[in-house]
Specification:
Largest sheet: 5 strands, mixed
Radius of gyration: 18 Å
Shape: globular
CATH class: Alpha Beta
Order of helices and strands: EEEHHEHEEEEEEEHHEEEEHEEE
Number of helices: 6
CATH superfamily: Fumarylacetoacetase-like, C-terminal domain
Distance between the termini: 40 Å
Structural class: alpha+beta
Strand content: 25-35%
Number of strands: 18
Number of domains: 1
Length: about 280
């Protein structure tokens, strides 16, 4: 299944893509696609519904983040060896785990706002995992059963906030709109091999990132197992798993986003995002 949320910000409805790629309105059948409903088995309920029996969503409707909110927005750093090299870092011996603020979550085509004081806002196309059930101390073999689905994430990053000063990554990853997620939450049965998905990101029509999930140092199942050693993962938690090379920081000299820039990014089978970069409105 390819699940999504559509409508005005703060008033999104749950939806599903039908066989023709059209958005069908699930709001008469299920509650919102949110941590509580994921934990209550909403995905199993949706599987019993024939999408063709549902009303169509309005043409051209806004797509929101594919889950309403998340209790924990976890991220993995330097998870592609070639990206680590472009930043001047050694590939990590074990996953680098940090957090993005849940309030950074935004729709896949919503504007990305450059925060106040930013000088080095950057892009990162990533595969995101959405957790489907309470997960604690699971093995790598058990981990796939804990995953509700996968989505595209743009792990937007402000490098000065992230690295300079006290150098805390969460400060550079958590601004409003820094977590576009979606367009769809794709259930694992729709994906032949999550460890072999092509991914890309363009800025102003120029290809900046080209990669494939097969070059991840730590794959999704390992990451879920590893993180579950240190914290309980809950339904609706998001883990965004790192980016391939081609980020702005890796340019010589570095290149960063500015108002008016446009990003297009996607992962095979998981859909695409399109974002305009805008200045802070204040």
């Amino acid at each position: 299944m390819k699940l999504l949320r559509f409508g005005p910000k703060g008033a999104e409805k749950p939806g599903i893509l039908d066989a023709g790629g059209r958005i069908r309105d699930l709001s008469g059948k299920v509650e919102d696609i949110a941590p509580a409903s994921i934990g209550a088995g909403i995905l199993d309920r949706i599987r019993s519904i024939n999408p063709e029996s549902l009303p169509l969503a309005p043409e051209g409707v806004r797509i929101g983040p594919c889950i309403a909110t998340t209790g924990h927005f976890i991220a993995i750093g330097l998870n592609y060896a070639d990206h680590a090299a472009e930043t001047g870092a050694k590939p990590p011996a074990e996953p680098i785990v940090f957090s993005k603020a849940p309030t950074s979550l935004s729709g896949p085509d919503d504007p990305v706002i450059i925060p106040k004081g930013s000088t080095k806002t950057d892009w990162e196309v990533e595969l995101a995992i959405v957790i489907g059930k309470r997960t604690s101390y699971v093995s790598e073999a058990e981990a796939p059963a804990c995953i509700a689905g996968y989505a595209v994430c743009n792990d937007v990053s402000e490098r000065a906030f992230q690295i300079e000063g006290t150098g805390q990554w969460i400060k550079g990853k958590s601004a409003e709109t820094f977590g576009p997620l979606g367009p769809w939450l794709v259930t694992p049965d729709e994906i032949a091999d999550v460890n072999n998905l092509d991914m890309f990101l363009d800025v102003n029509g120029r290809r900046e990132q080209t990669g494939n999930t097969r070059t991840m140092i730590f794959g999704p199942a390992f990451l879920v197992s590893y993180i579950s050693r240190f914290m309980v993962l809950a339904p609706g938690d998001v883990i965004t798993t790192g980016t391939p090379p081609g980020v702005g920081m890796g340019h010589k000299p570095p290149v960063y986003l500015k108002p008016g820039d446009r990003m297009r990014l996607g992962i095979a089978g998981l859909g695409e995002q399109n974002q305009e970069v805008v200045a802070w409105p204040g």
